[in-house]
Amino acid sequence: MSHLPLLPAVPTEPPLSDILADLRTLAGPDFEFPNLYRVMGHSPEMLRAWVAFAWPLRLKATTSRSLRELLILRGAQVCNAKFEWAHHVPMAFSAGVSRAQIDALEHWRQADCFDARQRAALRLAEEVSIGPAATPESIAELRACGFTDAEVVELTLTASFYVCVARFLGSMDMPLEPEYEKYVANGQCRLPSA
Asked: Which CATH number applies to 65-183?
């Protein structure tokens, strides 16, 4: 149970109804506020600012969506952010991430299903999530793998933003929507056995 009451998933009054309308333009006409937004909506201007930052990370980034979803999922594991994990597993699948890759995330260093660029992004996610920051070696590894300076910024911002997401979710004790519970195994950021 969230520390704050959940607002309606489909608000009918401004300013939240206006924010929902904007999100439906981006995500489709059936989009409803996830529990995260239903809590954040208690401060509509903060929700608006959140959306203005989060959605370009999702939709306007130049690195591949599958790479960013791997990075987000690894960060969610490190932060034990079950809500974040469960919401991003289906996004990862949609972006082409394999079940084998998701299953191997906890032990990505020993797994053979990641290429050099994915390994560099997973290292970045881990270092940023553990904190206090990515090491110079991690940034150098990204650049050695051919990521442009703009892509290094994009990946580092994404990893950092999702640590913020994890901290907010934990602070609010965010409940997971029932339809996402199938992506969490025994309260852990892993998929249930196939």
From this structure: 1.20.1290.10
Q: Where in the chain is the domain with CATH 1.20.1290.10?
A: 65-183
Residues 6+ apart with CB under 8 A from 2: 35, 39, 172, 173, 174, 175
Tokens 């852990």 belong to which residue? 188
Amino acid at 129: S
Q: Residue 29: CB partners within 8 Å, gap ≥ 6?
A: none
Which residues make Cβ contacts (< 8 Å) with residue 122, sequence separation at least 6?
A: 70, 71, 74, 105, 108, 114
Supply the pLDDT for residue 75.
98
- Flag whether the pTM goes above 0.85: yes
Distance in angstroms (rounded) separating the CA atoms of residues 7 and 10: 9
Give the model's pLDDT for residue 70: 98
Please report which residue ranges of the chain form alpha helices under DSSP H.
16-27, 35-40, 44-59, 65-79, 82-94, 99-104, 116-130, 136-144, 149-172
